[in-house]
Amino acid sequence: MEEILEQKKERVILVGVALGDGQEAEESLEELKELAETAGAEVAGSIIQAREQIHSGTYVGKGKIEEIRDLLFETEADGIVCDDELSPAQLANLSQILDIKVMDRTLVILDIFAKRAQTKEGKIQVELAQLRYRATKLTGKGVSLSRLGGGIGTRGPGEKKLEMDRRLIRTRISHLKTELAGVIKHREVQRKQRQKNHTPVVCIVGYTNAGKSTLLNYFTDAGVLEEDQLFATLDPTTKSVELNSGQTVLMTDTVGFIRKLPHHLVDAFKSTLEEAKYSDIILHVVDCSNPFMEQQMEAVYETLGQLGIKDTPVITAFNKIDRTGKNSLLKDVRADETVKISAKEGTGTSDLLRVIEDVLKKQKIYLEKKYGYDEAGKIQAIRTHGQLLKEEYREDGIYVEAYIPKEILGMV
């Protein structure tokens, strides 16, 4: 009997507010449905209210609350999930009026992150984001939070964290920030080592479930989890990839972006997301089969803007053309280059490597030089860090034409 109860999914009603474009609200609620299902819930129904602004006290208006109450009764749902982050007052009022479990989009996303985090850094970042979120909901919420029990929102730090008072949460946050600082320091050491080795870094970014991990696995056999789910992978992975010329680059996969990405997560995952800031190329992977592709691209650029990433070259890889066809019209006016690929089937991936090489070439300087045979080791450095165009063995030495990073000019 206990096993049956554990397997029973929470049934939830989705609630959204349309502040103008009703189509956009429907798209957002459709995504919330995917999020709720990824978190382990079953969606029993949904309600959208068109309003000029979100109700400051109850998120939706009084009449819509009655509709929600009726739908909860009809569907025997266990709770509701609102499509925006609720204020403490909204959360308290809705919980009191409906006498049912009330969640918001942020809580669901944090719950998924808690389930996906595998590394020490990932777990620290998730717990930090969860505690910051819960700290904002403590006012007058001790009783309601303690009623959450199992289900969405109780993974990660554990239910005991829900009972912490402000002082204990602040102490725990301080401890986590100290731990995270150590991890960040280690990451910075690794980053400086990569810069010292002059190995170009290509940072893969994109909306969640766009196919970033599939692409990294195709190039590197990285063994990163691939699932047709939101936030299937959370922890970043860096692997080396050899380009067509033989030059090596490092490809780093990052956490997927999403519309209304909670600021708690952006803050907590800043060290991970900043891998993009220090990269030589941003590889923006886009699911071109998704009907909301344009909005997803906008969400990615918005998050990159929050991280202060503006001048780094962007290559947009329109992925999943196996679902849309190679001749589909696709463009990204903010990208330096675009290419159509299928990471699953490998289509267009050689073109992508060529484009990466072309973009890197623009960041290099042209070298034309003759080396003595006792300097052959320098040519290997050119081959590793640059693009060797010509190599001729002559009587008086080795003639070379190449593109090299300006950082190694003094070495060769």
Characterization of the model:
- It is a single chain.
- With 412 residues, the chain is of the alpha/beta class.
- It folds into four domains: 2-109, 3-Layer(aba) Sandwich (Rossmann fold); 118-179, no CATH class; 199-361, 3-Layer(aba) Sandwich (Rossmann fold); 364-411, no CATH class.
- The protein contains 15 helices and 13 strands.
- The strands form three sheets. The chain has a six-stranded mixed sheet with strand order 6-7-5-8-9-10, sandwiched between helices.
- Helix 2 packs parallel to helix 5 (105-116) and helix 6 runs antiparallel to helix 8 (166-196).
Structural class: alpha/beta
In CATH, the homologous superfamily of the largest domain goes by the name P-loop containing nucleotide triphosphate hydrolases
Return the CATH architecture of the largest domain: 3-Layer(aba) Sandwich
Which word captures the global form?
elongated
* Ends distance: 72 Å
Order of helices and strands: HEHEHEHEHHHHEHEEHHEHEHEHEHEE
The CATH first-level class of the largest domain comes to Alpha Beta
How big is the Rg? 25 Å
